[in-house]
Amino acid sequence: METELIKLIQENGYFSVGKTEEIVKQEFFIPNLTNIVKKVIVNCVPCILANKKTGKKEGFLNHISKESIPLSTNHVDSIGPLPSTNKSYQHIFNVVDAFTKFTWLYSVKTVSAESALERLKQQQKTFGNPIRIISGRGSAFTSKLFNEYFDEENIQHLQITTGVPRGNGQVERIHRSFDSSSHQAIIRQLDEIVQIRRQITENTK
């Protein structure tokens, strides 16, 4: 009978536990009232639907606008660890131009901020700085050193939402295109290319 009474009161307004208790106590004395009211409200479908969420409202994911200009927006990420080469390269730092989808692969020994910045500076010497760089939230990309460099070079740094890898989908597609057997061969070829480039540079000084 107590349960039916509380249900009847709830049907008139879908009140909170405290408010419902207050209304009941005006006319009745029911032992263990709080627990009975809570049980009724927990199982009351209209009450659940009427109860609005409190706190900060969820917003929409921000869409990252991109210029229709080559080399204005770059996506960056790292692949690895991979089987080590003779020179201890175990990772690939990749850069993808958002507009042309042109991809650069750089062999690196670690995924540190220093390694990433070394390759970005190498990229800068040939192509200049992009307007923005989009990255994940790995320790290298969230480091103070990494973000100080962007501030100095006036590059906008955008980081994808945690758990939403498609936010950096340009490089994620590159990752999927590699199979495990090709990783080491790619790194070795990159290592050879770096050595050839150094020799050409030295010979033309």
Automatic annotation (TrEMBL):
PROSITE patterns: INTEGRASE. GO terms for molecular function: nucleic acid binding; RNA-directed DNA polymerase activity. Residues 66-205 form the Integrase catalytic domain. Gene3D superfamilies: 1.10.340.70, Ribonuclease H-like superfamily/Ribonuclease H. InterPro entries: Integrase_cat-core (IPR001584), Integrase_H2C2 (IPR041588), Retrovirus_Pol_polyprotein (IPR050951), RNaseH-like_sf (IPR012337), RNaseH_sf (IPR036397). Its EC number is 2.7.7.49. One of its GO terms (biological process) is DNA integration. It comes from the Eukaryota. This is RNA-directed DNA polymerase. It comes from Trichonephila clavipes (Golden silk orbweaver). The gene is Tf2-6_70.
